[in-house]
Amino acid sequence: MERPGVRRVRADRGAEAPPDDVWPMTVPAVAQLWADGLELAPGATVLVGENASGKSTLVELLAQALGRNPEGGSANARFETRRTEPDPLPLVVERSPGAPRWAYLLRDETMHALHAYLDEGHSAPFRVPP
Q1: Residue 1 placed within a domain
Q2: Contact 44, 6 (CB under 8 A)
Q3: Residue 6 CB partners (closer than 8 Å, separation 6+)
Q4: DSSP letter at 11?
Q5: Cα-based distances in Å from 51 to 32, 37, 54, 113
Q6: Is residue 69 a contact partner of residue 77, using CB atoms and an 8 Å limit?
Q7: What is the pLDDT of residues 84-100, one digit of tens each?
Q8: 113: three-class secondary structure by DSSP
Q9: Does the first or last residue of the chain, that is N or C, have fewer Cβ atoms within 10 Å of its Cβ?
């Protein structure tokens, strides 16, 4: 039986709730994540929605909750091209018992910068000049 690494992501109810009239809480997908959490089944999860519906913002928040770079990569890939991500929300990540903590994020929007970072053999963070 396959165990998902992450079963659920939910708001940390012990933390102060972010204002609901300030971005990213004004994004319906983010407000729903905060209110209801997100259950993840084993296998791949695909987010589908209209342009500007909050898919990328949701993925960025999930990546931050998992300790990953919201632009892509592993926990050790700490590059930043141009900051557009929201500040992290106080989210709790619920993992399956004994599930690995390894994760990797691939993003279409930042794949070229991640590939260049890895191809150059960087082990320290880098920043692309504005």
Answers
A1: no
A2: no
A3: 40, 66, 93, 94, 95, 96, 99, 103
A4: E
A5: 17, 22, 8, 22
A6: yes
A7: 777 889 999 998 888 77
A8: helix
A9: N
